[in-house]
Amino acid sequence: MILDPITAMADSSRAAADPQDPALRLRRLDKASVEFEAMLIEQVFKSMEGTLENGGLVGSGVSGSVYSSILTETVARSMAEHQSLGLAEQLRKDTIRRDPELKSLEEAKTHALGQGLHLEYKVNTDISNREH
Questions:
Q1: CA 42, CA 64: separation in Å to the nearest integer?
Q2: Quick check: pTM over 0.70?
Q3: Which residue has the higher pLDDT, 41 or 110?
């Protein structure tokens, strides 16, 4: 699985500054959960492809093997990022539930989003009332 080196360096430099920062830990948890789900999906695809005859989906040979590997990794990452299985989200929720600092940060974030949605709804209602 290919990791983005720039993001990895930025994460490591922030972690060196304050590894206990709950916001940083939450971002790292999000990333790790998605990467884990992508890795699992990729392994399932590779196992499935191994059952196909004639070299799998893209043919045999070195180029077919390379293309197949890239295709499998790309599809697996896309599926994980779009929560198709929901494993990353479940891992994230379970980890947050077990960590008091992350749980309070997530609750504050959810509360702030709820307030923002409420304010947005109120503004939209006020605008529609003025037009009538």
A1: 17
A2: no
A3: 41
The pair of three-digit structure tokens given for residue 93, joined into one six-digit string: 């929720």
pLDDT higher than 80, residue 15: no
Q: Measuring CA to CA, which residue among 54, 55, 93, 57 is closest to residue 75?
A: 57
In Å, how far are 8, 61, 74 from 14, measured between CA atoms?
10, 43, 28
Question: What is the sign, positive or negative, of the torsion defined by CA atoms of 116, 117, 122, 126?
Answer: positive
Dist. CA 11–CA 21, nearest whole Å:
12
Backbone angles phi, psi at 46, to 5 degrees: -65, -40
pLDDT for the residue 25 = 87
Write down the H helix ranges in the chain. Answer: 5-17, 22-49, 61-81, 87-98, 100-131
